[in-house]
Protein 1
Amino acid sequence: MGFYGEQIVPRIINKACGGKTAEPLRRRVCAGLAGEVVELGFGSGHNVPFYPAAVTRVTAVEPSDVGWRLAAARVKAAAVPVQRSGLDGQSLPFPDDSFDAALSTWTLCTIPDVGAALLEVRRVLKPGGALRFLEHGLAPDEPVRRWQRRLEPVQYRLAGGCRFTRPIVDLLTTAGFTIGEVDVFYEQGAPKFAAADSLGIAVSA
Ligand SMILES: C[S@@+](CC[C@H](N)C(=O)[O-])C[C@H]1O[C@@H](n2cnc3c(N)ncnc32)[C@H](O)[C@@H]1O
């Protein structure tokens, strides 16, 4: 990865993901988390203020050192211990059945082999554990999908490998998750091609 990917992209992500409008969505996706939690694509820690009191520890998986450094103040202020213990969601350095819950927000768009990452999340979740997800992906409407396909190559280059057209729910079910609940909507204040969100709970058998 070059200078742009290492130094600039995490700072852009920190700003782009740190908006006030995302906060109610972060609160919603984090509600219900409890026990030992693994967070995939921790970024600069924008979910930290929304971890419920029932969470005992968060294990952050994040490849970007800059992202982790930008998270420092939030990690320090966290009400629960947060440690960075993994660098790549595609290969998690944890034993099977390690976590009560998992969290992923706007990350499944970027992990190169997202199928492998979801299998890893299932492996490290205890049976019956749930992945709480908030992800942008393939839009429900064809005219928006056309724009997503047109703009995806630019997005991929500028935003560290982010794709617009990943079918989030299909990816989760293909990995063996059962969708407990899901809400699909366009996030307010952003262009639809970048804001086709899925927020829900995927349960590992
Ligand atoms: C758009 S950002 C979202 C960050 C954070 N989840 C949030 O909601 O603010 C995507 C994150 O996925 C991370 N990422 C990229 N490849 C990854 C991988 N293979 N495993 C885990 N995280 C990855 C990026 O470094 C980045 O922090």
Protein 2
Amino acid sequence: MTTKLEALLDRARSVRLPIATKLVLSFLLIVAFISTIYMVVGIRLISVRIVAEAQEKVRHDLNAARELYLGNLAHINDIVRVTADRFFLREAILSGNLENAYRELHRVRIREGLDILTLTDQHGNVLLRTAFFDSGGDNQSHDELIKKVLENEEPAASTVIVSGEDLERESPLLKNKAYFEFIDTPLAREREEIEETAGMMLKAASPIFDSENNFIGILYGGTLLNRNVEIVDKVKETLYEEIQYKGQDIGTATIFQDDVRISTNVKNNYGSRALGTRVTEEVYDQVVIKGEPWIGRAYVVNNWYITAYEPIRDITDKIIGILYVGILEEKYLDIRQGAVLTFLGITIAAAFVALVVSYFMAQRILIPIFKLVNASKAVASGNLDATVDIKSNDELEYLADSFNQMALALKKRDEQLREFATQKIMESEKLALIGQLAANVAHELNNPLQGIVTYSHLILETTDNEDPSKASVEKIVGQATRCRDIIRGLLDFSRQREPIKTLSNINAVMEQCLSFVEDQAIFHNIEITKRFEEDLPMIVIDPSQIERVIMNIIINATEAMDEGGELILSTRYDATTDFVELEFKDTGHGIHEEDLEKIFDPFFTTKEVGHGTGLGLAISYGIVKSHFGTITVDSRLGEGTTFLVRLPLQSVIEGQGNGRARQIINN
Ligand SMILES: Nc1ncnc2c1ncn2[C@@H]1O[C@H](COP(=O)(O)OP(=O)(O)OP(=O)(O)O)[C@@H](O)[C@H]1O
Ligand SMILES: [Mg+2]
């Protein structure tokens, strides 16, 4: 998985994109990212806000509807109470002459628009019905409301369910009005029944007392809610003012008896009131079974509404129906869609503007960069006169200024270098010429000097000890020998002949050198320690040249220890680099720091005049170099000096081609 990802990243990295594309792509990514988040959050906020607004409204509407509903009930209650207190009723019950009472009550019922207005005795036996004169004699104490008044002897009012029989007793017309055959409704709960015979009534009952305040009867009246659209239409009119949206009423109200629409202004597909249809199971469970209000979207008959439902309870607090108001969801969906589209449009336009702006900003950055790139290319190809002109008053301008300064400095240095190089070449040509001259002179002087040395020796030998000229001859011999030494050194240095390399044992070469010098007087108070590594590999060198290097270093060391000291000679093999190392460590007076870098220069010497030519280390350096080795020094003033000569094992034997000397010395 990770390797796949890495491979993908590698591929992405290997894609070469111009900086302009990269910049614009980065802007694009940022703009896309921000606007996506902005849109998602914005749309979400808008949706939530609009839905919340709608729910808030429908909640208020339900409160208003409830007030209207309860207002109706209170009105009935008032009528019943006032009428029950009237004298003629008391008279009628006490005298048993109901004719007069019937007329009066009938008038009240018609005037107040009640469906029933009925008189009972103090046990609930019906004395007279104004809606259906023939009926009477039955007992109404089974009615929860009447029961309550019988118990408390106080007025009571509530919504009640009235059975089909009772309705028929009150008036066969009412029974018909209340009857509903259920109409198939999608999403409604399963029911075994197919019809509703009972009715739901707003009902009030009031006790009647005689002049001694004895309870002598009950007057009850009410309005059947089934097929009575007065309340729901009043709600609709008050709250929604008959406003229509796309041919549909925007707001609707309904009264349910259990789950059946008994009073509604929700329309069915044919445009008439959807009476007899039922509420969805989901809403029913929440409102009727759980007894909680429902605020939210719900499917009502044939459309989605933002709805509010709350239970209607009877006098015993039993849930017997539902009060509903709802607003067509489509309107809010359209508002939301409009808002979202506007929002989207603004966001996309803003993103586009941001992109265009970023493109021009990128251009503003890129043009100076291109200028810089072109100028760098020009400088790289040797045109040091190239300059960049950027006036952006920012880092790019500083960069351009620095670039111009750099180009100028480069140009100056280039000129200086050229001048310096010309001077150096001229100087070294001069030096080479002088060197050549010196070599020629040395060569010419060598033979005559050799003659002077030989003949002055002969003269010295034949001169008597008492001869006063003997001292002068001795001086001639000494000075001539010194001249010859200088000339030889000069010759050696200037000739720098190619080494003749053979496979050699470096330990043996060291021993050989020591044997030359060990017996000499200056070695007498010097302790020599040898730390030669055994099994040292054979090495390809010119032994006579390397001997010269070793001798020179050893003699320098002894000269630095004229008061005595220790000289440690070591050899070892460095397997990692395949080099043989020769180390010479003395306890002499050491070298001044400022002299350290000069000691390999020809003619550099600190020795007294006549004691050193200053050519020893210069020659040694040349020899080691021609062996592809190195010679280094480490010195501490007053403590001693260490010379380290490193020679490669793998070298070239003349006439034998490339050969690797790996033979082990067996001592
Ligand atoms: N082991 C050492 N300790 C202190 N100084 C040293 C040592 N080896 C070299 N030098 C310094 O380096 C100088 C140059 O040495 P180099 O061998 O080139 O010339 P020289 O010894 O002075 O003369 P020549 O070798 O011709 O006799 C010496 O004069 C001395 O000052
Ligand atoms: Mg020397």
Protein 3
Amino acid sequence: MLVEELRAEIAANGGWMPFVRYMERVVQAYYGKSDRQFGRGGDFVTAPELGNLFGRTLARQIQELEGPILEFGAGSGALAHALLAQKLEREYFILETSAALRRRQGERLGTKVKFLERLPERFRGVVIANEVVDALPVHAVRWTEDGILERGVGPRLTWEDRPARGALLDAARAIEVPIPYESEIGLAGRAWMRSLAERLEQGVIFVIDYGFPRREYYHPQRAMGTLMGHSRHRTRGDPFERPGEQDLTAHVDFSALAEAARDAGAEVLGYANQAQFLVNCGITDVLAEANVENALHYAPIAAEAQKLLSPAEMGELFKVLAVGRDINAPLLGFSQGDRRHTL
Ligand SMILES: C[S@@+](CC[C@H](N)C(=O)[O-])C[C@H]1O[C@@H](n2cnc3c(N)ncnc32)[C@H](O)[C@@H]1O
């Protein structure tokens, strides 16, 4: 049982576990089960799970780029399925940490995809991470009158805070917030981006996820942070409720990812909200290919477009960040409304 394992690890570590370690354990356990996360009967619905409109539109951007595709965290395999159907004639690699989901993806996609065990030493091509960075473990931090604290977990699986140290303290000091304030710092996300960007010899990395630039992320009104549990389409505030049974996520600080990519020598090529990106890629042309006369066929596609584009749904909260190396032409997806300057 995960709860017993967590308690044992906390006891072995002097009665405390940093929150980042707790999140790593529970997210791993959560994705270790392949049967229930995705889709309408699951815990949440991602853009590729809505249908193939997202994939067909993203394919128009990929078509302008060269090389194989590497998808991180492919979930049920829905995006790979939609992209492969577009006959892009590329090799398709998946790097998925959950063995159970790897199996599920393998069953759905067969020999059309190859699985990677770890980051390749070098990569040329197109990297996609849709709703993956929000699942990477974050450090939880409290800025108080008495100093900056790292939030962690005590023996009873409740919050316990200790003074922050090292790289976390440095990162927390660099963020301007009113006091008192609680939030998250995604050091693992930054490291992920840095090592990926270092290995990218030529091509583009697309990170698609919910989040903000730093100034909005650490906004005075967001003084309780962005941690969320997801279960059965409801968000839950308590990260210690049923560990491993609910997904745990934090919003993405896109400024931090952009900085990490630049540190690795890559260039930030574009940053836009999901609606703008999909419109730039020609989602309306993809929609126009659907048979408007046939309501039965058209209604679900129109509903899908509404979810992807509406500012009240995924259109504004979700962003697309592209970083790359050795790309000379502007990217289709950022031809209008590029908000790089806000990062
Ligand atoms: C919210 S799901 C998104 C799935 C899919 N991309 C989609 O949009 O439907 C997160 C996915 O990332 C995977 N994952 C979590 N941490 C990862 C990591 N460090 N590297 C690669 N995949 C990871 C999970 O197993 C899962 O497949």
